[in-house]
Design goal:
Strand 4 (180-183) and strand 5 form a beta hairpin. This protein has 4 helices and 6 strands; from the N terminus they run ααααββββββ. It starts with a helix and ends with a strand. Strands 1-4-5 form a 3-stranded antiparallel sheet. It has a 3-stranded mixed sheet with strand order 2-6-3, with no helix packed on it. It is an alpha+beta fold and 197 residues long. Among the domains are: 71-140, Helix Hairpins; 143-197, Roll (Nucleotide Exchange Factor Grpe, Chain A, domain 2).
Length: 197
Amino acid sequence: MAEDKKMNEEFAAEAETEKEKTEAEKKEAEAATDDVKADEAKAESGDIPESEESQGSDEAQESESEKYIRLLAEFQNFKKRAAKEKTDIHAYANEKLMSELLPVLDNFERALETKTEEVESYAKGMELIFTQMKTALENHGLKEIVALGENFDPNKHSAVMTEESDEYESGKVSKVLQKGYELNGRVIRPAMVAVTK
């Protein structure tokens, strides 16, 4: 009987231990269920647990950082392209003008190679070449500054001397010593002139 009593006590102790374990597991399960329900409630309300929020913010920061790096790389590529285009523009800006002046150069070479005694035909050839060159330059915006008989304008004329003149009144340009030119409305060389006193 003593053995039965001892076995009953051991059995009761094991049962009690099992009961305590079951209750502990039940409490843990309830706690886990409560946590899940709380997380679901926070997710529905827009509140995210701190650990998930920090993970989300880390991901957002990485995404923003990647966007910034990509944007910076695109901007640097744009700057390189713009610098190359600017260099190309400066290098080839006069290409069209030069291609129009090449025939003029060819005609000058032909005229210099020609051995002729006829001064009149030679002068006519030079005049044609001059007209061809002047036309090519005018097509690119070059314009002669009209000075003779005009009022002296320090923006367009450079007075190198004054003189008496019966033909022009005081302050007028009486003689053009060197022609002046404008390129697209901007003076690139003022006319060198004499002005009446």
